[in-house]
Amino acid sequence: MSLELQDLSVELDGRLIVSGVSLTVADGEFAGLLGPNGSGKSTILKAIYRVNKLTAGRVLLDGHDLLAQPLRNAARRVAVVAQESAVEFALTAWEMVMLGRVPHRRSFDRDRGEDREIVADAMQRVGAAGLANRSFHSLSGGEKQRVLIARAIAQQADHLLLDEPTNHLDVRYQVEVLELVRSLGVTVLAALHDLNLASLFCDSVHLLASGHLDQHGAPNDVLTAASVERVYGAAVVIVTHPDTGAVQPLPRRRQTVTPERPI
Question: How many domains does the chain have?
Answer without folding.
Answer: 1
